Amino acid sequence: MQEISKGANVSLTALSEDAGAVVVSLGWTSATGAGDADVSVLLLDENGKIRSENDFYFYNHPAAADGSVQLLGKTPTSNGDEDRISVDLTAVPEDVARIVVAASQYGGARFGDLDDLRMTVADRSGEPLVGYSIEDAGVETAFIFGELYRRGEEWKFRAVGQGYETGLAGLATDFGIEVLEDAEPTTGTEPTAAPEAASAAVPAPPTEEGGASDSAPAPEATTAATVTATPSATVPAQTRGRAPRTTKKKVTLPKVARKSLAENDSWRTARLFPVPSLKSDKEREVRATSVLLSVMAEVPELGRRLTAGFGAPAGRMQTFTEVPLPHGDTPRRPDGVIRVERAGKLWTALVETKTHGNPLKDEQVQQYMDIAARRGYEAVITLSNDVALDGSPVVDVKIDGRRKHKVSLWHLSWAEVAHQAQMLIRHEGVGNAAHAWLLHELLEYLQHENSGCHGFQNMGPAWVPVRKGIEDETISPDDGRAVDVVESWERLIRQVCLRLGGELGQKALPVQRTRRDSDPRARRVAAASALCADGRLSAELRIDGTSSVIAVTADLRTGKVRTSVDVPAPEGSYPLAMVKRLLRALAEAPADLHVQSLVEGGNGPRGTLERLRPEPGDLLPKDGAAPTGFRLSLIKGMGSTRGNTESGFIRGVDAAVDRFYHGVVAHLGAVETRGGRRG
């Protein structure tokens, strides 16, 4: 990969023969784990202005109708977060001269608070071509990272690095976007119809209330209306986080199901994809592959969402199952084939599927990689219950560097497929009611206990001996099995984030408090050493649109899972008043919630919510010191099995996070939260 400096440019065509479609990545890290930014893309004409409001892509207008631009969303990396954007340069209209890639922050946040600001461009196969790091970020609230621009018949990349102290509003104005300033900013969550104007409105920052409205769901599929959002520069801080998101008119399913016409609960609803008869692993794999690939082909939004990050263009998709392909004396039958056609060009991928916790086989995937290379396929996609981690391959294959044709190996988990389907049908919407119904049926299938598509379910063979070694205090820090357990723990936390994010309609991501250039293996070795020393597995996760960082700690010696979050004390408030305000916000929280006051240099009094409600003053330090904040914690017993039963460890951790979010974090309301320290 070629590194360039600010202001430099390079030809993408000169770097790769496969640069007709690229994936642009913006990444950053944060020392506190709370830093974040929103990506936006602008298509500009020869005059450096947008042609219409449809040339502005952001979190609520994430994809172009022609497939030229698609925001793929955030993905966790070994050291932070990364936003990815798919750009099909062959589909970009002729009158578009430049594609600007930017990011912005809200609520007083500055880019100088983030570390490792970086932009990379990869070709269709996923091969990184060029990278650019921003070293001089300071008080800016918006940044243009770089731009793709035409020069004759080729596309080039320029590292821009231009910052704006006026935020997204200032950046947008430079490119011909009219900023609509409301005298009274919207503070509720009800959508307001947008005026018919040719100019685009600058979106308000994403908030937890900014998803699909829950009020008065219609019996049939509902349609979300376009809204006008006010620019963050003119919205008061106390109401800025409550502005609704903007969105195109799309069909979503109501969250409240219609009343059933069945006579009793024993009647089963007819399903498009029945599963009760599935008994063998082979039946599960064949059915799951056919169901998913058929829905991907019929629902363009899902097909693009699942393949765009792998280099597939936005075009006509066809899918096939059990396709015989020559391989020596014995033909091979991959579980599926995906073919996408756009502008006369064909993108193809082989699909290998596993269900019911069955592992992918290195030798089998290697054969498909060899077949793909010989037959000109662009990718091999593996699909299983396992969750892929950055820097940790799911299967071990060898790439023959002598082959001119490159084949990319990608992995999807069933949990990620379910997450994307839920995001579309519950929060973002699809093109029509039939597509929404198909996604709903797919999700029902994936979540059925007989489908075998349940995501990460097993902590692996090292789990039992490591846990026993910790209980007996016989395990040593150099035991390689402890590293395997840490890696499985990371996969579990990633899956918990996928499930929670799909339910909330917000991105939920693991927090990594290490620099982007650190070695994932070294980080896991350090975590394994800490596990052997104190018997604890720890992680943090952040929900997009909030400043909350939920800390999760599994204590293998006590068999308890602790979930916690820190709430800062409001400035200028009397201690007793702030305690009462906190307890009022937690009126619906579980009675066994532990609340502890935090003071400078240590911890203050603590107690359960049940005990503190009648005596809130017991939470104040006896020496009169003012609390700096409060730590809220729930403690739950965890399962002892590998995770294949209701009492299993994996289900226990997932249930603990779910209970803590819905029982505690969701009730904090206006109480601003900050990162919870591990305890």
What does this structure look like?
By secondary structure, the protein is of the alpha+beta class. It contains 14 helices and 26 strands. The strands form 5 sheets. Strands 20-21-22-23-26-24-25 form a 7-stranded antiparallel beta sheet. Strands 1-10-9-3-7-6 form a 6-stranded mixed beta sheet, with no helix packed on it. Strands 2-12-11-8-4-5 form a 6-stranded antiparallel beta sheet. Helix 5 crosses helix 7. The longest helix is centred in the last third of the chain and has 25 residues. It is globular. The C terminus is likely disordered.
In short:
The protein has 14 helices and 26 strands. The longest helix is centred in the last third of the chain and has 25 residues, at 480-504. Helix 4 packs across helix 5 (300-307) and helix 7 packs parallel to helix 10 (480-504).
